[in-house]
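Notes from the 1:1 (GR / supervisor)

We went over the backlog. Supervisor wanted to see one worked example end to end before approving the batch request, so GR pasted a single chain during the call. The sequence is below; no edits were made to it. Supervisor asked that the structure be written out right there so they could see what the output format looks like.
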Amino acid sequence: MRLGAHLGISGGLADAVREAKRIGCESLQIFSKSPQMWSGPAIAPAAAEEFRAALVAEGIRPTAVHHGYLANLASPKLFVLKRSRAAFLDELRRADLLGVDALIFHPGAHVGSGVEAGLKTIAESLRAALDEVPDSRVRLLLENAAGQGTTLGSKFEELASVLAQVDRRDRLGVTLDTCHLFAAGFDFRDERGYGELLDQIDRVLGRETVRAFHLNDAKAALGSHLDRHENIGQGEIGREGFRHLVNDRRWEEVPGFLETPLDDRGYSRYQADLTTLRSLVEPTSAPPAARRSTRRGVARGSTVK
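Structure output shown during the call:
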């Protein structure tokens, strides 16, 4: 796995790349604007060019832009939906200008319209965006959810439903957040649980669909449906919960972005988390042997129905 983190761009886009290299990142995720804004200032072509050049110079790959927090591509409210689709399209164009590999986004919440209606609306939103930017090379990655409230995407079947309705596997994929997986009920802390998680991924999504990970420990208990990130090894997942993931050569070229908590020590906490993850990597990593549970495809302890 190509380990990296989510870094800020307040010092400039290219500076984020150089900072990522300094703290030991191999991959990089950023916001292209404030995540609390529907739209942001235009990215100057020169700044985008400098960012792209810095990525090459520092050998940082893969790369992603994470969408902001306001958009809801599943909203049944027309005004919110139109604004969300406009924001998503703007974010896709910004990501395209920056030349990143992926745009990662939260699928949304149905806020009362129902799961099926919400999934259909997300798919319609994605088809509209792809039609507007048909030549973009940015892959759209749906992020799994923790399952709080009416948010969609905590179940692999829901993510798979959106992918099937859009039917553009060349442009779509999935990001799996470890904290969200755990909060949704997937217990992958031991070898058996990790094998069951792989079974579920293979059966419902297809492993090739998983294009990125968010590597976060969890403050809250298994199946809590609470999205509360913790630093690696300091939460309910624990250090050993990441061992199989970082040693699995099937994810060798897949980025693993940290989104763990920071404080006044800045990115030194990311450095500590990267050190922890790398300490788990065995000298010769090989794909784990076939590990089929007696309840194939269902994560042990899962609350996912």
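Supervisor's comment: Residues 289-305 have pLDDT under 50 and may be disordered.
Batch request approved.
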